Q: What sequence folds into this?
């Protein structure tokens, strides 16, 4: 009997310890840059509410207001994170009647931001749940929701709080639709959607679209009005000699054009949004 | 009795566990940039002395030697952090007879750096205490105090050490005085003190100064020799249409001029230190 | 007796707690930049395998493919870190028959990367052990080994796993040899190997080489074809007036040329790889 009580007491103590050190990850993606107090302001606020948080910067170098770029980066980053991770999207954070602040639960992770369509670009299908935030801002000023509202919401979730405690259910997301590569009998017309730090060109053509279109027959990938071509898909950059063009699929299965050890975008003179066409070779 | 002793033993054990995981936050602000080993050197040293530290980068992109910019960023960032946070200021770290290394305790947080006047810009009034560091550098070389001295001092504070163990009491801070917006009957003359990542213009005119000057009457905010004006204060950027000029107060209550979804500094041709004048509208 | 059993039970419980919070540091150095999902992808994967990891960015701004720069930065950063730290080198990560993925144990720390010679530049002598990684990639795609292989290997080491469980022993490193400052009777011919954020010039002349060459006699340090000279070694930048040239040793004992509060590289028109010559003064 007496042991039973002691045990309970200790169990409680140990539960406290475990509880206290509950970690949990919050990521941040934004267009705040790295020269201002914005990023640190959000982090400080998260630690104030949840001292044991692990905070990860995805990127703060998103072009100001560019939701599409932020969606591309976050879509490819979040899948590496453990279940329960909370992602704060610090872009176009100003709330309006049309674009409200939400928390969405998708793929066992939480996403907090302004629903201007960015969520529909990150997710492949409908999220499990959506709640419109109605927790008050920490300040009377409404220009810094990342710090004054999203950080609080994130800390609430890390503490094991439920998303429904942050606001009321919302039925659906604002939809943003991206140009999808049109296919006809002879060609699959994609475009460059991202240029990475190596000046590699990432297109909006997925591996499965590519394979469906080529279905084993010969092809040419044409860019910069037929000036440059590739007619083979490689497994790695090193499959071609340094300085040569190589087509391959990225680690997230998008068609990529690169130059081994070189800078494709600048050397080939190709920019974001430029067309990349896959054509069946005429026999 | 016997239970009492067990309890004590376990309490000790559990205290050890709690002790070991004592976290504590250190922030870093500097002009070290992100392409060198300086930031990592400081972090490694902090972890060596205090493995459970949580280290937060405020910014390492401060213009070299620009204490005023660093003070502006840190002043606006530190207030989001929990009590007990330790801030390392890695700018102009070289010690001289005039400018010594200090730790100051202010607003329940610690600030470590070189007292060249920067502390007087961060604090609104005198700190609770100031100590001149006299702990030895970790290396015979004196060019990297951020790593070889400040990191050690920060770890000492995170470990629960007292600041007075780091050096001897110092009476006062070196004072740096910034140009304050002069007011006369007709105008309040401020200037741009910061341009953020969105090219928003932050001025040195506070909300209270502004309100005291305008006291409910009509006004004009004039910049670039009367070429551009604003005659209203808004609550958020979205109160005006994209591309239009908007005046509002920042989350830290400074007058800000912006262009909704646009880049005010470059579009209006305004630079840091340019004048921003608030004038009473003549009737 | 009965107390003994309780004690064991609690010891186990407490061991579990300690175990769970085993931290351990992983650092990342790469040419991935800060605008992409690459850095976050690697971090997410590390947290997935080892939730309590402490991850430190050394730099992600290494020039693409520049192993020599990465080696310089890591060599100077790693020494500040505690024993047991794991360093992931995310540069030229593509594996080939000649350049395999390895983990090396040196100076009580682990280094994971592609053995293209970079390890031989980081270490001063042979590492204690080298293992060639043969753990599978997390993805069928081989273009992102930093995330799909190195992160797993790092988590394994943080978990207390042995490096020999990651692959088979490898006898030696690929050797990369850097130009060493040639010495003759009259001069010691070095070069600029790094320009830091302050535009300070760091040379490949070590303090000991310098001292051996000058051995107490008078000298001149000549750069930009005799246009600029220095004939004294100072202890700190502040030993000369702002705007004046100062020669000193860096915190890692390399000869450095700087301008106090100024930008030596741009003001003197000196670039990476430019010669810096130490000459004995003729009497």
A:
């Amino acid at each position: 009997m007496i042991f039973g009580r002691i045990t309970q007491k200790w169990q409680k103590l140990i539960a406290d310890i475990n509880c206290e050190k509950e970690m949990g990850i919050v990521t941040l993606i934004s267009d705040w840059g790295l020269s201002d107090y914005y990023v640190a302001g959000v982090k400080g606020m998260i630690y104030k509410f949840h001292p044991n948080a692990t905070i990860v910067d995805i990127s703060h170098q998103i072009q100001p207001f560019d939701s599409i770029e932020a969606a591309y980066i976050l879509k490819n980053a979040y899948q590496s994170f453990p279940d329960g991770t909370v992602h704060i999207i610090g872009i176009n954070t100003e709330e309006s009647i049309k674009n409200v602040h939400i928390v969405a639960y998708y793929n066992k992770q939480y996403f907090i931001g302004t629903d201007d369509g960015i969520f529909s670009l990150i997710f492949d299908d409908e999220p499990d749940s959506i709640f419109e935030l109605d927790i008050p801002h920490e300040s009377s000023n409404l220009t810094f929701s990342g710090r004054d509202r999203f950080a609080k919401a994130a800390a609430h979730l890390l503490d094991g709080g439920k998303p429904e405690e942050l606001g009321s259910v919302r039925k659906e997301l604002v939809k943003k639709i991206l140009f999808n590569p049109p296919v006809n009998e002879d060609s699959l017309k994609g475009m460059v959607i991202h240029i990475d730090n190596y000046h590699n060109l990432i297109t909006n053509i997925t591996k499965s679209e590519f394979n469906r279109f080529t279905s084993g027959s010969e092809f040419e990938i044409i860019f910069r009005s037929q000036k440059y071509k590739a007619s083979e898909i490689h497994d790695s950059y090193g499959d071609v000699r340094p300085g040569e063009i190589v087509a391959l699929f990225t680690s997230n299965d998008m068609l990529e054009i690169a130059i081994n050890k070189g800078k494709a975008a600048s050397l080939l003179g190709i920019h974001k949004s430029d067309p990349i066409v896959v054509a069946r070779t005429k026999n």
Observations:
- DSSP finds seven helices and 15 strands in chain A.
